Amino acid sequence: MGALLYFANFCTVNRTRTKRKPFQTVEIKVKMDCDGCERRVKNAVTSLKGVKSVEVNRKQSKVTVTGHVDPKRVLKKVKDTGKIRAEFWPYIEHNLVPYPYVAGAYDKRAPSGFVKDVPQAYHSQPSSNLPQQPFPNLFSDDNPNACSIM
Fold first, then answer.
1. Rounded percentage of the chain residues whose pLDDT exceeds 90
2. Is pTM beyond 0.85 here?
3. What is the pLDDT, as a whole number, of residue 128?
4. How confident is the model at residue 87, as a pLDDT?
5. CA–CA dist 53, 75 (Å, integer)
6. In terms of Cα–Cα distance, which of 65, 56, 60 is closest to 36?
7. Taking the CB of residue 44, how many other CB atoms lie within 10 A of it?
8. Residue 20: CB partners within 8 Å, gap ≥ 6?
9. Within 13 Å of residue 110, how many CA atoms lie on the same side as its CB?
10. Which of 3-7, 50-54, 110-114 is predicted with the least confidence, judged by mean pLDDT?
11. Which domains does the chain have, with CATH numbers?
12. Vertex 21: Cα angle to 20 and 26 (nearest 5)
C-alpha cells in the first residue's frame, strides 16, 4: 500500500485551487422606488457565484446578500444595475450602541431604530466632575469609609 501511494504522488498533477471566500453577510443601502428596481437588483446579485440567499427590503432601502461572496463585487454588481449611489449599510441598531444620540451618529434619513455606525457612539469623553472609581468600589462593605456619597 505504501508503494502505491509513493508512485501516485508522481502521477498526480498539482492544481492550485482558489481559496474559497468565507461565508458572510453583506448589507447594502440602495434606494429602490418600484418593483422593477427591486427585481433588477435581486436578479443581478443572485447571478453572482457563491450567493446563497438575497433579501430585499424596499422600505428600509436595504439588500442583504448571504453566501461565499466578495463584498466589493456585490457592491459593483448593484452599481452596474444603474444604482450609482449604492453603498455598504452604514447603520447599526440604536440599542447596540451605548451613546446613540451623540453628534454624528443620529441621522434623519436612517430607518427607524437605526443610527450611523460611528466611533463617537461607542466612546464618550471622560468628564472631570465624575468620580474615577468604578461604582462597585464606592459602596464597599469591607471599608466603612468608602461610601463617598453619604
1. 40
2. no
3. 45
4. 92
5. 15
6. 56
7. 19
8. 68
9. 19
10. 3-7
11. 24-89 (3.30.70.100)
12. 155
